[in-house]
């Protein structure tokens, strides 16, 4: 194996090795480089660049965001950008992360009813920004359910919100005891975004169990 | 407006009226017809078909599944198929609905660890099928978090699962008091699939609030 002449720091990886270790194809790595998701490697020669452990870690994060979480590449880039800019301030990072990710496909012809969500948040006493995109995502879903003749009543909505409060406490508890600010930020991002499919999966399994229990009783 | 000569039942809608009332373009309606998401209209003449309120309701449901929930058309078709086949049996419908929807993009090169999920479900005492796709979705996320150096410990996972249990009780409570079996089935589907973005939105709002509280304290 050819070793780079540039000996500053660890021996850089060639793209083929980065591909092998990350499990991401060379074609896809080149795409991420073009799209700005992955920072350029260190120039080794006119035709060769070198990559390091940061590139590997970043590739794993991109794979997690676009694969498991199913985010479009543009949204993943926004998340990674927010992570880099606000590494030291978990609260800002959380806000920006939530701000940069769409919760669902846009449905432009729906007419959300933010008033209902505003009054819910007021009743809960939650301290959240007026512009949080989760507000409109919530309003859109409530409108859809109503349009389809299956509206969610206020009492049920409040009960779901109280369970969300307890979930959020658990979420933020996961950040306790981590010292390094960058690690706190990255963990916050992972918990916010990556845990979503796991929470939905747990809900579905719990529904199946609950349905089985009620079915057996009747 | 030209009225059909066929007078069996209500006056059928022409496609233009179906488009206007549903807010879905004629092009998109034709696409749903081709893809089998929407049943064919009643033949009025060699070139005209008539549509009824069932078509309108079905179109709204397709819009909700593909728009708000962001499901691919093929997954929406599976969901609608399951709904039609198992209208009378809520428990089977739930099982099939959960079975027909992927929770996240496939990430074929991940190696899920079903043993961890199996033992979790055993510890919880949940009655769920061995083949429930939510199992592998959960395993994939846990593997991703571990790969990224942010594993979720067993105690936290159990806490999230207990919150999911309470969410599922709320979910199934929403079906109480509905008599019509088809309505029970449709409501179950809507709650399972459509409520997901709302629950994730509530979690993000609750996180922002919880983060603001902890930030203010320190």
From TrEMBL, chains A, B:
InterPro entries: DNA-bd_dom_put_sf, MerR-type_HTH_dom, MerR_fam. Pfam families: MerR_1. The keyword DNA-binding applies. Residues 12-82 form the HTH merR-type domain. The keyword DNA-binding applies. It comes from the Bacteria. Keywords: DNA-binding. GO terms for molecular function: DNA binding; DNA-binding transcription factor activity. This is MerR-family transcriptional regulator. It comes from Streptomyces avermitilis (strain ATCC 31267 / DSM 46492 / JCM 5070 / NBRC 14893 / NCIMB 12804 / NRRL 8165 / MA-4680).
